[in-house]
Amino acid sequence: MTLRIVPLDLADPQHAAAFLDLLDHYARDPMGGGDGLLPETRSTLVDALKDVPGFHSALAFFDQTPVGLIDCFIGFSTFAAKPLLNVHDIVVHQSVRGQGVAQALLAWAEQRARAIGCCKLTLEVLANNDRAMAAYRRAGYVPYELDPAAGQALLLQKPLA
């Protein structure tokens, strides 16, 4: 089997279907919430993302079978006065985990970030997702801290109704 990483083309119906299927696969996993995508999300997400500036995504294929996905969004570092690339979703189908798909997707994101002049990549991960943490560390990701005495940064959220 040959692993290929291909930029996502949401105008391609096969890419769009693979994107939704892989994202749903992730959402059904306990690390993605366990519930799958809502039907209204499945029906609107592809068109909504087409209008989002700074969206970068790729699919991973073993031969012709889609097995992985990475979704990234451009942000901005005020301290560096440069863009950054945030890895928002990374999905590896459970049937091929441990076969280098995550590393290949993360390498694609790094190449993309360098090509658009980003100063860094960021991502979030659940603290108990040991498998993902190990993959991210292998790819060079470390917890964010400005000063070790101040501790690591935490991700907070405030859902809006």
Key traits:
single chain; 161 residues; alpha+beta; Aminopeptidase; five-stranded mixed sheet; 4 helices; globular
CATH H-tier superfamily: Gcn5-related N-acetyltransferase (GNAT)
| Mass-distribution shape | globular
Alpha-beta classification: alpha+beta
Q: Architecture, CATH level 2? A: 3-Layer(aba) Sandwich
What's the gyration radius in Å?
16 Å
Number of domains: 1
Q: SSE order, as H and E?
A: EHHEEEHEH
Q: Strand share of the residues?
A: 15-25%
Low-confidence stretches: none
Mean pLDDT score: 95
If you had to describe this structure to a student in words, what would you say it looks like?
This protein is of the alpha+beta class and 161 residues long. The protein has a single domain (3-142), classed as 3-Layer(aba) Sandwich (Aminopeptidase), CATH 3.40.630.30. Helix content is 32%, strand content 25%. The chain has four helices and five strands. The protein has helices at residues 13-28, 39-50, 101-115, 130-138; strands at residues 3-7, 55-62, 65-77, 82-92, 121-123. The protein has a five-stranded mixed β-sheet, sandwiched between helices. The longest helix is centred in the N-terminal third of the chain and has 16 residues, at 13-28. The radius of gyration is 16 Å and the shape is globular. The relative contact order is 0.14. The mean pLDDT is 95.
